[in-house]
Amino acid sequence: MHRVFRSICLAVAVLSTCALHAEDWPQFRGPNCSGISTTTATLPVEFSETEHVLWSDEIGEGVGSPVIAAGRLFVTAMVDKETVGLLAFDAKTGKPIWKQTWKTGPLAEVHETNSHASTTPAADADHVYVYFPTMGMLAFDAATGAQLWEKKLPVPFFVFKWGPAMSPVLYKDLVIFCQDDDLAPAIYALNKETGEIVWMDDRSDMAVNYSHPVICETDQGDELVVAGTGKLIGYDPNNGERLWYAKVLLRNIKTTPVCQNGTIYISLQSGGIANQWLATADQAETGNSDGKLTREEMQGFVGETKIPESFFKKTFERGDKNKDGFLEGEELDYAFLHPDNFAGARFDAEEAGDQFVLAVRGGGRGDVTDSHVLWKHKTKYTDHIVSPFVHDGRMFLIKGGGITTVFDTEEGKVLRRAKRISNTSEYFASPIYGDGKIYLAGENGFVVVLADGPDYEILAKNDMGDSIVGTPAIAEGRLYIRTRTKLICVGDE
């Protein structure tokens, strides 16, 4: 009897612990990168940089999102121009718990919208994991900040100067990290406890992408789904085997899919590679606008950072078929996309870019392009960065200018005409949801709150006083907003 009672107590303790952490927001865009919180607490509607603020902190410049696990919040920031930090706070009180900082070493120029503190940590009750391009992946004790391990990874290179922006995600005992850069695109699965590589997939058939891996639950078991150049790929998360692919995507993708009930939902927009190179290098002040691309024009566009010779070998030498020192016409396509995986608008396309919404059923094997694509529709107002919000049978999208569109998830039908919300800002943060409300954070610092329903009624427009690029987080009835320089916790308590 004593043994039975002890077992019951242990089970209750385990369940209590699970319940305590059920509302964690452990990685980019929360559980499975979905943007959906399971909170049952009331979330705030009206707030600002001074109203309903439970705590705030001047953490430093950055665009990485905050994450919350077991009552602790973690976020990255540039402490100064040469120092990056990982900061830990008590999520309820805002009390600093610990802080780790490192000298970054030489850093390449990145786009003004981005930041060198662009990564979002991933955390569980015991550990927090963070990536920085010049250091690789690092793990820390969540309670004390003690470093547990460090795993060096290839330093990425981005010729268009978009810069690093990928973050780790967690699956069982693995830390998953995908980095589709211009030199060594790959996905890694690291052991949580040791940092050792459990498996790695060479993604040399990919161009640059910024799409996070997500888990799709199927009758055949869990699949790790990663979007990339041309292909949506389903991996075996245990060993990295490519189980299936659907050839349905474009040249690159910066949005992250959403998985629900065995189906993967995607929104994307992308331009052709030939058009982008001619527009950014040949037609730049350092180019001559002759419709051809040279090494010198490429280097002139990039500026002081020297383009690695390995990049020229991988691209320019492959594309320059007649060896005349120029890339022209279809040579541009050959140069910058893998010969076995061309995707997107070609050099002679009338339209320089494409955009779609689509749904793919998981659980296939091999080439599932014809068998598992449920629907795919061209669109007009699809953003290239902001990920979709999928809930209650609807896919909701927002793009720059505050333009929203809505599709049904069964067939992808348009449910209403494009509609502009009352905040005509650029958008980089993705929608998040909790307590029946959708939060849309604009780059101009305003957070619009919508009711989650067919009409998406606007409930409030809240001024946070500083630019917002990172996606906010939700936990325990609170909204955590990372502005360009601050961390602000708002709630109705």
Automatic annotation (TrEMBL):
The keyword Transferase does not apply. Residues 307-342 form the EF-hand domain. PROSITE patterns: EF_HAND_1 (PS00018), EF_HAND_2 (PS50222). SUPFAM superfamilies: EF-hand, Quinoprotein alcohol dehydrogenase-like. Residues 1-22 form the signal peptide. Keywords: Signal. InterPro entries: EF-hand-dom_pair, EF_Hand_1_Ca_BS, EF_hand_dom, PQQ_b-propeller_rpt, PQQ_rpt_dom, Quinoprotein_ADH-like_sf, WD40/YVTN_repeat-like_dom_sf. Pfam families: PQQ_2. It comes from the Bacteria. GO terms for molecular function: calcium ion binding. This is Outer membrane biogenesis protein BamB.
